[in-house]
Amino acid sequence: MGAGNNIAVMASGKGSNLQVILEAIQTGTCPVHVRLVISDRAEAGALDIARHAGVPDVLHLNPKDHADRTAFDTACGDAIEAAGCSWIVLAGYMRILSPAFVQRFAGRIINIHPSLLPAFAGADGVGDALDYGVRITGCTVHLVDEVLDGGPILAQAAVPVLDDDTRDSLHARIQAEEHRLYPATLKRMVECGFTIRGRRVIWKNT
Ligand code: GRF
Q1: 178 and 150 both lie in a single domain
Q2: How many A from CA of 47 to the centre of ligand 1?
Q3: What is the mean pLDDT of each run of 10 residues along the chain (206 residues)?
Q4: Which atom of ligand 1 is nearest to the CA of 44?
């Protein structure tokens, strides 16, 4: 597997998306190599998952140790480059990336968001969709640009909203789709590749 398949995962939370990516690698269904996991939170479950799976570099970087967001992101970016990663995969990373970081890794940062973008961008895509009353929501894998949750869309999956849904029950069904979609999209990304036409992602070799 070449260096082009090396990924860094950035995560702030429980890390279930990281977990399914690592499992898909183990079972041979996702041809990437997680070289580095970075979290901004020491208590993030993602750090334990990464250590347990034997990820070569597992880092907690504390934003409070850095002068500002740009300085913190520079430290993250330096670690990512030192680890030789071609792609940055955000998996529940709860900090907004500085423009300098997005430019440094332009076109190589991927995020998963729990709504059908462009609807319900922002911190609570699940609760906002439920409160709005949509009957169908879902998840989106997209490239990261300077606009929050605004980059070109790589893949989406739909999830119906049920009458008795709570935020938790809806998020659980969205996460089940995320866990299918994220490893599958990473596989397609490194195996097929894509070009961008306007806002559209055009997959190659499919
Ligand atoms: C996911 O729902 C993802 O869409 C959002 O944050 C959540 C992360 O979940 N960006 P986990 O930490 O991977 O379980």
Answers
A1: yes
A2: 14
A3: 86 97 97 98 98 97 96 98 97 96 97 98 97 98 96 98 98 98 97 96 89
A4: 12
